[in-house]
């Protein structure tokens, strides 16, 4: 086994460990303050609603070129990817509008 392989496996372990800790530690911290769990739950619910709306309006059309090998794209997967992209676009626009409104609010005050 090469040293590069060892470092690759070590980096995989660190990424997985960091991801798990990034999810678990805030949950442990918020157990002392249950109202923060309600805010988090409402945020997750809002994100789910945005995704559901985007998924509902996305198209499930698959071109024959992408339905064959090597892509094997199905209509369901196409609809999911379309919904994910529309959700990303919507959240990006919401973030930009939020930044602009915040800066205008600071400029007025």
Structure, described:
- The protein contains four helices and no strands.
- Helix 2 packs across helix 4.
- The chain is extended and about 55 Å long.
- 83% of the residues lie in helices and 0% in strands.
- By secondary structure, it is an all-alpha fold.
- The protein has two domains: 32 residues; 75 residues.
Helical stretch tally: 4
Mass-distribution shape: extended
Unreliable sequence segments:
none
Broad structural category: mainly alpha
The SSE string, one letter per element, is HHHH
Number of strands: 0
Report mean pLDDT, rounded to a whole number: 91
Keywords: Membrane, Transmembrane, Transmembrane helix
Transmembrane segments: 6-28, 40-57, 77-101
Protein name: NADH-quinone oxidoreductase subunit J
Write the layout of secondary structure elements.
Layout lengths: L2 H28 L3 H24 L6 H4 L7 H34 L1
Helix pairs in contact: 2-4
Task: Tag the structure with descriptive keywords.
109 residues, 2 domains, 0% strand, extended
Short description:
Helix content is 83%, strand content 0%. The protein has 109 residues and is mainly α. It has two domains: 1-32; 34-108.
């Amino acid at each position: 086994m090469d040293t590069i392989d060892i470092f690759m496996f070590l980096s995989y372990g660190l990424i997985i460990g960091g991801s798990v800790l990034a999810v678990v530690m805030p949950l442990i911290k918020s157990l002392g303050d249950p109202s923060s769990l309600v805010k988090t739950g409402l945020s997750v619910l809002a994100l789910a609603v945005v995704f559901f709306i985007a998924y509902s309006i996305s198209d499930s059309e698959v071109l024959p070129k992408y339905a064959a090998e090597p892509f094997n794209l199905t209509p369901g997967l196409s609809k999911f990817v379309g919904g994910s992209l529309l959700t990303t676009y919507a959240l990006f626009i919401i973030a930009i509008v939020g930044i602009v409104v915040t800066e205008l609010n600071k400029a007025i005050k």
